[in-house]
Design a protein that fits this description.
This protein is an alpha+beta fold. The chain is about 15% helix and about 35% strand.
Amino acid sequence: MSTLTPNLGLIKPELTDAADITAMNANWDKIDAMSIPRMTRVTLASSNWDSSTLTQTVTVNGILADDTKQLIQAVPMPSSMSVAIESGVYCSAQSDNSLTFICTSIPTVDITISVAYQDAIYVG
């Protein structure tokens, strides 16, 4: 009976198992999906900041709550960089399908953030 590899969860057949093209294709699909980072853009609307916590949470489908499972880079787009720096905006937390940003002062304009994320294996 086949088992799963510990890191990627690939199907690992026993030497006595018959070749299973469906299982092989599932393995290749997993490897292919992990091979390049996924990227999207989110907008931190100036009107959506919580004035008491100075935070804003946005939806980013595919983000995992476990910070040891993905490498996430959230960087202001060049057109938003100076406002983000002046307002002290950075990503402070993650949960399933969302990122939370914090600031030192609420920006008066919207900030566009480029979010790149990729599955990773934590070895720490």
